[in-house]
Structures are given as C-alpha cells and as structure tokens.
Amino acid sequence: MHAKVLGKGIFVGNLFKHLSPVTLTKILREVPIIGRVNFYERGFAYILTNVVAGEEKSRKEFKKGEIAFMPSGSSICFFLQDVRSYKPMNPLGEVVQGMDVLESCKRGDSIEIERISQLGGT
Predict the structure, then answer these.
(1) What are the structural domains of the chain?
(2) Nearest to 90 by CA among 70, 107, 75
(3) pTM of the predicted model, to two decimals?
C-alpha cells in the first residue's frame, strides 16, 4: 500500500491477502481511497470508506504499526500504539515506512491511499 497524508508525507504498508482475503479484495476495488483522519483515544487513526465487509479472521488486539479494517464502521485503521479494541477488526497488514508521518496526523488531515500491491497469497 502506498499512501500519503496530504501536506505531511508518504507512508508505505504491506498488506497480506491471507489475513483477510475478501475484505482486501473489496478494498482494492475502491482504490484510490481518500478520507479524513479521525482518532480513537490516540490509540489508532482511521478513515471512513465505502467498503462494506463483514468480520473475517477478526481479532481485538493489535500492535503499533498494524493496519486493520473495522467492519462495524467501514473504516481502515492505522494503529499508533498497542491497542485492545472494543470492536473486532479484520487484520490487513502493517506499516513498514513512514510511521512518523501517521503519528504526526491531526484530526481532519486527509489520507489518500493511492495504490495497493498485496503480498502473500497473490
């Protein structure tokens, strides 16, 4: 995944199809995705999407740098610290470059996911 926070920089993530194949396929159909940044208690940043997907290999515990999809809110989540979520999320992958760009985000900034190349299982 190649994405940018408008006016702040670029970040790169590895997404793995075997983690949530149906969810990732649906996300791929929507790219490019642009959304305004929101936060959940500074534990993770997220952007709303038009993707509709159910739970798939979901879990509630995530580590800093991981990327997940929250089915209940149609959101792509970027974890800024280790979090135990109150809602189950579908794991997608991890940020491998530019974590500092995500950490510098403020509410209302725009994230644009420009392209996705999946790893594993494709």
Answers:
(1) 2-119 (2.40.100.20)
(2) 70
(3) 0.93
